Amino acid sequence: MSRTALAFVFIVFLLAALAVFMPLRAISAATGVGRDAAVFGSVWNGHVQGLTAGPHRLSSAELALRPSGLLQGQAVFDWTVEDPALRGSGRAAAGFDSYRLTDVRLTLSPAAFVRLPAGLVTPQDAASIIAERVVWRGGACAEAAGSVRSDALYALGQRLGADLPALDGVLACRDGDLVILLSGDAEDASVSADITLDGPAVRVSARVETQSPDVAAVLQANGFTLSDGVWTLTLPGG
After folding, report:
1. What is the pLDDT confidence band of residue 17, given thresholds at 50, 70 and 90?
2. Shortest CA distance to 63 belongs to which of 83, 93, 86, 35?
3. Beta bridge partners of 201
4. 94: which of 31, 51, 147, 153 fits an S-S bond (Cβ 3.0–4.6 Å)?
């Protein structure tokens, strides 16, 4: 075996040995992911408490390194989240100037992540997110593909005795931010909403068309304003 081949084999084994014993905190410090959280364990079996997800801090997340990513200069992890407001799994990759989420499957409580008026959502309402990929480069959202579904408005209709729609939508990037574009139609209302995820801030812009006096009364009581037959609500986040 040539010296070059021996050197390559040595480097591969050295990287493997380093990966085996590397604490997860070292990856967190190098990439900036989870710097504000409590990070424990090795890259093979890591545990994170208090990881920020929008305005919410997750109670528990488990991470396991995929060694193949190290040869490409990336830290690639399979992860699972167990939190009262969020459950799911996916894959995350962090490089020196980019982050990527893929194969994401989440079930969550919208009330924990989007600060809508209390009269519109409850902690029992649910939403699901399937993200094929979300990519950030240089701190800005560059690519996003996925689907979202929320039953919060439908559940509100059930409480009111009105026919309100479940909302379906997609993930997209707009002006460097990750956005969720939702819409739905039912007998008592047509609804569209844009949710912008800008770091810990979640901005909401919603539009509702309805001929139901009961629905209109609830909208007005929860901060919507009426103009040209359309009820609108804008929450700046923060």
Report:
1. very low
2. 93
3. 198
4. 31
